[in-house]
Amino acid sequence: MLRGWGLDFIVAVDDDKKGRSLREKLKQTLYGGDEAQTKENLVLVDGCPGIEDVFSQCDFATHVLNRQLPAVGTRNSDYVKQLKVSKPVVAARFLQAVKERKLTWEQLDDETKRRIREVVDSISLALARK
Q1: What is the pTM of this model?
Q2: Pairing of the two strands 11-14 and 42-45
Q3: Which of 43, 56, 69, 93 fits 12 for a cystine, CB–CB 3.0-4.6 Å?
Q4: Who contacts 91 (Cβ-Cβ below 8 Å, separation ≥6)?
Q5: How far is residue 105's CA from residue 39's CA, in Å, rounded to a whole number?
């Protein structure tokens, strides 16, 4: 519908089975299988099966979940599934902590900051091409 109205947009998807499947489906339906157009309009959050994986394991457990660290090597997205917590609720609490300045950029470790910058840069580049 947005395309029909001439509104440009980009889509960012997780780098998991569902995200890659959605990317392929959109590539075929929106861009006629054209990889160049797909790359221009769809951002795959590389190496992040879930947006939670943008955070370092320590930052995610400490600042987002307020829980102890998971076993070494456990992805944040897998940890969320193990705990059976609601991703929207976790995200809302995180946003609230940021808005209330209970969590600041300075409190995040270098790994998290680097990954967030990478995601934001990818999205910014895609938006700049619009």
Answers
A1: 0.81
A2: parallel
A3: 43
A4: none
A5: 30
> Among 11, 4, 1, which residue's Cα sits nearest to residue 130?
11
- CA distances to 51, 80, 85 from 91, rounded to whole Å, are 10, 12, 11
18: CB partners within 8 A, 6+ apart: none
**Rounded to the nearest 10 degrees, how much is the dihedral formed by the CA atoms of 59, 63, 68, 72?**
-20
- Can you give the three-state secondary structure of 11-71, one letter per residue? EEEECCHHHHHHHHHHHHHHHCCCHHHHHHHEEEECCCCCHHHHCCHHHHHHHHHCCCCCC
Write out pLDDT tens, residues 32-59.
Answer: 999 998 988 899 998 889 999 999 999 9
What is the rounded CA–CA span in Å between residue 69 and residue 93? Answer: 18
The tokens for 109 are: 């470790």
